[in-house]
Amino acid sequence: MRVWRAGALIIALVSLTAACARTPNQTTGGGSPAVRPPAKGQATVVAENQRGGDQSWRIADTGPEHAIEGYADRVSVLPGESFRLYVNTTARSFHVVAYRVGYYGNAQARRVWASPEVPGRRQPAPVVVPGVNMVTTRWAPTLTVPTRGWPEGSYLLKLVSAAGYERYVPITVRSRDTRGKVVIMNAVTTWQAYNSWGGYSLYHGPKGFADRSRKVSFDRPYDATGASKFLTYEQPLIVQAEKLGIPLAYITNLELAADPHILDGARALLSPGHDEYWSTAMRAHATRARDSGTNIAFLGANAVNRHIRFEASPLGAQRVIVCYKSATEDPMYSRDRAETTQDWRLPPNPRPESVLTGVFYECNPVHADYVVADPDAWMFRGTGVRRGTRLKGLVAIEYDRVNLDVPTPRPIQIVAHSPVTCQGRRSHADSAYYTVRSGAGVFAVGTMDWVCALGSGCGRYVDQRSREFARQVTRNVLEVFAAGPAGRVHPARDNVARILSAGSR
């Protein structure tokens, strides 16, 4: 998270990128795109969702710190591949239960596998790498987990100690092929950026921001329950997407970084509620997919804000995330300034996230109502909203807005324009939709609590009406995006001049 303040930087950004900031949409409207027969991914997910769920996936008691915790040597695997778990526990023994997260009625997960009881052991204390304050472990592997027969999807492995304490280890069984499918992407780089296990994250160390990590490793457990970011910002979206019965594929953003063809033929990419940390390759591959007709939905806020790169750990490639948050501090500054790890919008090579997302991150924290600006927008069908309709508390934590002081794709259609006050400053949060020549549509909700509202979270800030609205809009977006390039049927209607009046820019 960060707070952006306008200044001379924006003038520099505009002069550097204005020539490419106003790309017109040359896609013409027409009939609905041809819909192919149900993809294999659709049949698989629909069949999977008919199976019985299991409420026991939820954690009852995490216990004292370090009572039980662990991590996997792989962030994702293909179906049938195995992976190793590294577990530390104070208990004499433990066992593991694997659950696939998805639409199983009210259960929202299905038990797919369980280990026998495994002897517990206390692993060595973590190591903090000097200079970069990276926390890593030198643990021995505890057991190997097979995934034979596991369908593609997002999984939670629940570690259960003999003392009754529990924690999660997340794993993704990724899709081999995304053609014809809506791709759900787990934002694992952001999970790891905020992970403070061992006393350090990319945000703080024992003394605060100054001694934060400059590198973070997947070779350590996640803090808290082991899956807090996933449960808040991703799990409700997965449940809602599977409920629709559309063709789905599953990846993490490590695959987006590693494979330039991972989105070839994909109908849409779903960026979840908090998807802040992107590498150059991630951004290039997502842009390439958009320009080839793949729709993108940014269902949160603050996406594509931090620039990162990857390094290997002893367990494999892409196991270390590098983010100095300072260009001049980054050793890459003297070698390749395009790869220094500060915010994407900052010098020495500013490339604001708005070029891809359409919206621009502004401030946190905030709690405000969501205000409809364009009730005739296609994603609002079936919601019954009018211009000025307010949805309680749906703008929360962090927000984005359309900001013409930075590069912004055109045409862009602002569909919600919500007054906010953040850190004493009045502004607006925007939901926006733009289309490009390939026909792809890009929709950004501009609020971090959107996915939270799809489930039962967000506390007292969001009421039932707001939840039902968010679910219907999400359904509309996913169904339209699943049919093909959305701009061929729903070209963006640029309304920036009307919405961004002189008093609200």
TrEMBL record:
InterPro entries: DMFA2_C (IPR046540). Residues 1-21 form the signal peptide. Keywords: Signal. The keyword Zinc does not apply. PROSITE patterns: PROKAR_LIPOPROTEIN. Coiled coil: none annotated. It comes from the Bacteria. Residues 97-458 form the N,N-dimethylformamidase beta subunit-like C-terminal domain. It holds the Pfam family DMFA2_C. This is N,N-dimethylformamidase beta subunit-like C-terminal domain-containing protein. It comes from Carbonactinospora thermoautotrophica.
